[in-house]
Amino acid sequence: MPPLTVAVIAFVALVVVFTTVWVWQVKSKNAGMIDPVWAMSLGVVALLIAVLGQGDLHTRVIVGIGGFVWGTRLGVHLWKRNAAHPEDPRYHKFREQWAADANKKMFWFFQLQVVISMLLSLAFFVPAYRTTPPGAAWVALAAVIWVISIAGEALADHQLLMFKADPSNRGKVCRAGLWRYSRHPNYFFECVHWVAYIPLAIGVGGWIVAMLLPPVLMAWLLMKVSGVPMVEAESAKKRPGYADYMRTTSALIPWPPRHP
């Protein structure tokens, strides 16, 4: 199918998905499930683009598998973290601020995820519609970046999960493993994931510029909007040692900690 047709199908499907989740949160008063649904639905969009795209078959297979595995792993992790738990403090804060308008504003917040997902899906669209296969070296580079990003994010998630599972760590700051070198190693590897598809688009002309949008957008959202600012504001209030952690540890890129 032409890319515009596939984009319309993906857009409509995402609107239906996020509207359904919005209805669910109206009843449950818990908007936290938007996170796993976002990851899983975007993984399915990658698969949809791979199946319906008209570009090189091998490239489409790589894009479909890469996006779907990423979305499934992250979605399952977030589902386990959020399901049957109190609402994420970020969304609870929105609910309190919006008061009587919470459900209406939450609806548009959920629909904003559709727009963000469509912009991120450029990482899948551009390579999936290239007519010739990328060079073997570019495919290898894409695979290496993808593996590093998925493995790194999974490791960071696991290390934090294990830290929180130990009752003796309650109220403490996690400095285990990757968290010693970055305050948000999971966010770092999430940004790296969106870089992985760029080598697959080398040689497609001006469209390669569009491939820069997904990693830049993800980094901006995590560092300036819904990620670091909200998470750290909450952590600074709950964990006495977090201010020192912020002074000595890189915010995103893993780096040896500074001496206090």
From TrEMBL:
<feature type="transmembrane region" description="Helical">
    <location>
        <begin position="107"/>
        <end position="129"/>
    </location>
</feature>
<keyword id="KW-0812">Transmembrane</keyword>
<dbReference type="InterPro" id="IPR010721">
    <property type="entry name" value="UstE-like"/>
</dbReference>
<feature type="transmembrane region" description="Helical">
    <location>
        <begin position="194"/>
        <end position="222"/>
    </location>
</feature>
<dbReference type="Pfam" id="PF06966">
    <property type="entry name" value="DUF1295"/>
</dbReference>
<dbReference type="GO" id="GO:0016020">
    <property type="term" value="C:membrane"/>
</dbReference>
<feature type="transmembrane region" description="Helical">
    <location>
        <begin position="6"/>
        <end position="24"/>
    </location>
</feature>
<keyword id="KW-0472">Membrane</keyword>
<protein>
    <submittedName>
        <fullName>Membrane protein</fullName>
    </submittedName>
</protein>
<keyword id="KW-1133">Transmembrane helix</keyword>
<feature type="transmembrane region" description="Helical">
    <location>
        <begin position="135"/>
        <end position="156"/>
    </location>
</feature>
<feature type="transmembrane region" description="Helical">
    <location>
        <begin position="36"/>
        <end position="55"/>
    </location>
</feature>
